[in-house]
Amino acid sequence: MDELINYMLQFGHLNTQQIALIKQKLKEVNLKRGDYFSIAGKVPHQVGFVNEGILRVCYYNKDGEEFTYCFMPENRFVVDYNAFINEVPCTKYVEALTDCKLYIFSRADFIELSNTIIGWDMIISKIMSAAMMRKVSDTNRMLNEDATNRYLHFMERNPDLVNRIPLSIVASYLGITQSSLSRIRKNLS
């Protein structure tokens, strides 16, 4: 649980009593590879923090093709925040790519922390803002690069992910086929 607290402390101050209350509200959950943390079309009722493992956010187009939107490795919160806050169905799936250990806040506990801890909402807002800025930056970069440079930048920003997740999913994230990714990797070696 200390990983979660240390992560939150990067975005604001929490005193000893607040930290104790946060830890009291956390529940540890284990997901197996292939399990879903949240499902498109369902209202999310929990917020997770990835302690071990990697999840991905994905969606399927009308033809059933799968697209990976982003990855959630260790030390990241995982939630469709808009759906969670507004109690509306998620638009994407969150799937465990590896066995995962998460710390979970239920909706009720998350709201209680918001109503109890001064500064909670500001910390959460800063965390969500940082995640959004990271995603916008990644998306802008990917839109302006060819496939080889998208892969190189992905490797630069996520050196530990490539060896932990299937290449088909990396290709999906990069917007290329798995065979194209294999050619790129072969040309770079």
What does this structure look like?
By secondary structure, the protein is of the alpha+beta class. It has a domain of 118 residues: Jelly Rolls (Sandwich). Helices cover 47% and strands 22% of the residues. A 4-stranded antiparallel beta sheet has the order 1-8-3-6. The protein has a 4-stranded antiparallel beta sheet with strand order 2-7-4-5. Helix 7 crosses helix 8. It is globular, with a radius of gyration of 18 Å. The model has no long low-confidence stretch (mean pLDDT 92).
Provide a concise account of the structure shown.
The chain is an alpha+beta fold and 189 residues long.
Task: Give a topology summary.
Elements: H1 2-9, H2 16-25, E1 27-31, E2 36-38, E3 46-52, E4 55-60, E5 66-72, E6 77-78, H3 81-86, E7 93-96, E8 100-106, H4 107-116, H5 120-143, H6 147-157, H7 167-174, H8 178-188
Antiparallel strand pairs: 1-8, 2-7, 3-6, 3-8, 4-5, 4-7
